[in-house]
């Protein structure tokens, strides 16, 4: 157990309801009530991750802010996390500090991206992360609180305040919390974290700056091509004209089983989606999504949705019943702006 | 429930000194750098500005650089070339 002094400023409060209102008054919440962060609760968070309070988890260069374990723990308590959630929050915060994620753009942009977190590995089932029905909906503490904790860290520690340094024009509800797990139990496919170089028995969180989920429907087809053709039709309309560097495709139960029954791997899906979501430059100019006069060559010049098939991240998750799945566009700006990163969840550090 | 203490979840950003280079009294004969941020029309806007700085303010010439994208600072190559090759810089946004 850490005995190092906590350095956060302390405020006396007479009781629970005053504590909650005090947090509102200070501008420390996301609009929902928070759990008052007491020293005991904060220490339990730190102990669960084996972290010293002053340990720096990441440094956000453009804000000149060092994000310490103590501040992450305080915000995790406020978000309603249990101590065992702390390692997940820590890994996600490390992801935000990765230069590949590129904090400033996705955090501040009018594009309104949220932090999509995809949890893989044994920790997902152990902590009850939802990977099934109502995938993006409410009702699961792990999904609701870990993403909320990350957003509170962005707000309270890094200063990403809506209307000030967070200028999302419309943004989306994923900015409260945007956390799913991959359904590794029922999925026939290689889990996302194994595709990205981790061992199956390791736990990870993938963070991606992302728009909201776009649902698509196909109850007509019993073939992989049929289902994925509907998906690609939707994705082709999205067209990545804002420069989205990556997309996530989330395949839920029925679609997953249909596609897997045909023997398709994730790589096959990625390749199919890459090939079937391209638009002609002429079309994008006609619909005013690219600038300039249409030339004869534009009719046959195809513009891919993403730079490569690997930039379509395929995840098996969602309810067992229903002919729905979804895709999630990344945040705009190309790969030099922000890429998804996968971080190891270390459940206890020395 | 008895009174208790809660911990502050916020931090103060590290203070960093920020010093501006003195503004030139005149642009006459000065070499101007234009930093284009990749937003649509930002290049056209900056070229117009560069032309005006030459024709109306007597700037010697201008050079334009393109950032990797609008959400990141100008990269090192731009900074190095600007340091070596121009006297002042205009950075713009094309929204």
Describe the overall structure.
The complex is a heterodimer of chains A (350) and B (95). With 350 residues, chain A is α+β, with helices and mostly antiparallel strands. Helix content of chain A is 33%, strand content 17%. In chain A, helix 3 crosses helix 4 (86-96), helix 4 crosses helix 7 (141-157) and helix 9 (224-238) packs across helix 11. The radius of gyration of chain A is 21 Å and the shape is globular. Chain A starts with 9 loop residues before the first strand and ends in a 6-residue tail after the last strand. Chain B has 95 residues and is of the alpha/beta class. In chain B, strands 3-2-4 form a three-stranded parallel β-sheet, sandwiched between helices. The longest helix of chain B has 14 residues, at 42-55. The interface between A and B is medium-sized, with 47 and 21 residues.
Give start-end ranges of low-pLDDT stretches of chain A. Answer: none
Subunit arrangement of the protein: heterodimer
**Roughly what percent helix of chain A?**
25-40%
Inertia-based shape of chain A? globular
Number of domains of chain A: 2
Q: Biggest interface pair, residues each?
A: A-B, 47 and 21 residues
Major beta sheet summary of chain A: 4 strands, mixed
The helicity of chain B comes to 25-40%
**How many beta strands in the DSSP annotation of chain B?**
4
Structural class of chain A: alpha+beta
The topology string of helices and strands of chain B comes to: EEHEHE
What percent of residues of chain A are in strands?
A: 15-25%
- Alpha-carbon Rg of chain A, integer: 21 Å
Distance N to C terminus of chain A: 10 Å
The number of helical segments of chain B is: 2
General form of chain B: elongated
Strand-helix topology:
The complex is a heterodimer of chains A (350) and B (95).
Chain A: E1 10-13, H1 16-25, H2 39-49, E2 56-60, E3 65-68, H3 69-79, H4 86-96, H5 104-108, E4 114-120, H6 122-126, H7 141-157, E5 179-181, H8 192-195, E6 204-210, E7 214-217, H9 224-238, E8 247-251, H10 253-261, H11 266-276, E9 279-280, H12 281-286, E10 302-303, E11 312-316, E12 324-329, E13 341-344
Parallel strand pairs in A: 4-5, 8-11
Antiparallel strand pairs in A: 2-3, 4-6, 6-13, 7-12, 8-12, 9-10
Helix pairs in contact in A: 2-3, 3-4, 3-7, 4-7, 9-10, 9-11
Chain B: E1 4-7, E2 31-36, H1 42-55, E3 61-66, H2 76-85, E4 88-91
Parallel strand pairs in B: 2-3, 2-4
């Amino acid at each position: 157990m850490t005995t190092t002094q906590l350095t956060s400023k302390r405020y006396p409060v007479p009781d629970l309801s005053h504590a909650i209102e005090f947090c509102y008054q200070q501008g420390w919440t996301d609009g929902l009530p928070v759990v008052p962060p007491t020293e005991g609760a904060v220490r339990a968070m730190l102990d669960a991750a084996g972290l010293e309070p002053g340990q720096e988890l990441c440094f956000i260069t453009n804000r000149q802010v060092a994000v310490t374990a103590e501040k992450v723990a305080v915000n995790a308590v406020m978000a309603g996390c249990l101590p065992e959630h702390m390692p997940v929050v820590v890994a996600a915060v490390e992801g935000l500090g990765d230069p590949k994620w590129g904090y400033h753009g996705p955090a501040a942009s009018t594009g309104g991206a949220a932090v999509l977190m995809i949890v893989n590995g044994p920790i997902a089932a152990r902590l009850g992360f939802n990977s099934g029905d109502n995938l993006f909906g409410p009702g699961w503490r792990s999904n609701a609180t870990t993403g909320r904790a990350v957003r509170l860290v962005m707000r309270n520690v890094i200063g990403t305040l809506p209307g000030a340094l967070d200028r999302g024009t419309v943004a989306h509800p994923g900015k409260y919390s945007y956390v799913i797990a991959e359904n590794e139990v029922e999925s026939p496919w290689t889990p996302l974290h194994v595709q990205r170089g981790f061992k199956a028995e390791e736990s990870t969180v993938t963070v991606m700056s992302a728009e909201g989920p776009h649902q698509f429907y196909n109850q007509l087809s019993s073939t992989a091509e049929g289902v994925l053709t509907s998906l690609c039709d939707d994705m082709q309309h999205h067209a990545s004209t804002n420069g989205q560097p990556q997309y996530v495709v989330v395949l839920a139960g029925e679609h997953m089983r249909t596609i897997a029954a045909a023997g398709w791997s994730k790589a096959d899906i990625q390749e199919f989606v890459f090939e079937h979501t391209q638009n002609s430059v002429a079309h994008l100019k006609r619909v005013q999504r690219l600038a300039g006069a249409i030339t004869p060559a534009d009719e046959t010049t195809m513009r891919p949705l993403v730079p490569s098939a690997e930039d379509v991240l395929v995840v098996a998750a969602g309810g067992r019943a229903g002919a729905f799945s979804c895709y999630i566009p990344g945040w705009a700006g190309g790969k030099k702006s922000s890429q998804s990163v996968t971080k190891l969840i270390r459940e206890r550090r020395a | 429930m008895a009174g208790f203490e809660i911990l502050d979840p916020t931090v103060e950003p590290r203070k960093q000194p920020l010093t501006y280079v003195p503004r030139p009294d005149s642009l006459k004969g000065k070499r101007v750098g234009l930093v284009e941020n990749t937003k649509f029309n930002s290049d056209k806007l900056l070229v117009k500005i560069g032309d005006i700085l030459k024709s109306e303010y007597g700037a010697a010439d201008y050079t334009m650089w393109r950032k990797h994208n609008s959400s990141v600072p100008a990269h090192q190559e731009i900074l190095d070339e600007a340091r070596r090759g121009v006297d002042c810089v205009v950075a713009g946004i094309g929204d």
